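Record type: monomer structure entry
Structure origin: computed from sequence
Chain ID: A
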Amino acid sequence: MRRIPASVIAAGGLVGGYGVARWSKKRPLGGVVLAAAGVVAGREWQRVAGGKAAAGLGAAYVGAFAGSHVLAKKVGAWPAVFSVAGGVALASWAVTRETGERSGER
């Protein structure tokens, strides 16, 4: 069975976490979604690219979450969330694509 790429999991965690928080009106529930996706993506980053890459991408994931709040004041909530989710997905893909190809995962 094929694995879901970490880039998709991370982007989905950012978008899904915000969506759940907004629609349920329970921010902690959105945080659970965000954290769960971050853990799953982090494990995949660790498996595919190693600890340093996982730490860097994890920091980017947390930074994107924080940055989306600042960006939302300028462009709106959903555009901010989609922008940072795309940025994290692109960073994840860029860091893990060659490693995954070399290890025969893709």
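Annotation 1: Confidence is low (pLDDT under 50) at residues 101-106.
Annotation 2: The helical segments are 6-24, 27-49, 51-75, 77-102.
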